[in-house]
Design brief:
Blueprint lengths: L1 E2 L6 E2 L17 H11 L3 H5 L1 H7 L3 H7 L2 H22 L5 H31 L1
Antiparallel strand pairs: 1-2
Length: 126
């Protein structure tokens, strides 16, 4: 959380403007890098939603993704907002641990899709 210089309200770190008064926040370079990373899509959530939600420590979304009616909504929301929710509610020790876990979860998602595609090709044509 950061404080708006204009109205003194608390603003979440990844926002570019204050939601209360519209003041444009000035972010330091490390804060900009963090904000950009948090706003980015979670590739692992797109490719392997249930595994990603467990690894990212967003357990509510894991449970929701298991319900067929809500699964696609959970997938879309986790892709768009997952990193922010994971950082905010995941109880991470530090930023480096969080970034490392997100990259590992994205890589696991890619490997998962490649394994599924390989299995499909193998069983389809053998």
């Amino acid at each position: 959380m950061t404080t708006c210089a204009s109205c003194k309200k608390e603003v979440e770190a990844w926002n570019k403007k204050c939601g209360s008064c519209g003041f444009t926040l000035v972010l330091e370079p490390d804060e900009k890098r963090r904000a950009r990373f948090l706003r980015g899509p979670a590739l692992g959530a797109l490719l392997f939603t249930q595994g990603w939600t467990l690894g990212a420590r967003v357990y509510f979304w894991f449970l929701l993704s298991l319900i067929p009616v809500f699964g696609i909504a959970a997938l879309i929301l986790c892709v768009v907002f997952g990193r922010r929710w994971s950082w905010k509610y995941g109880g991470w020790g530090d930023w480096e641990e969080f970034v490392k876990r997100m990259r590992v979860m994205d890589a696991i998602g890619v490997v998962w899709i490649l394994l599924l595609a390989g299995a499909y090709v193998y069983f389809r044509f053998n």
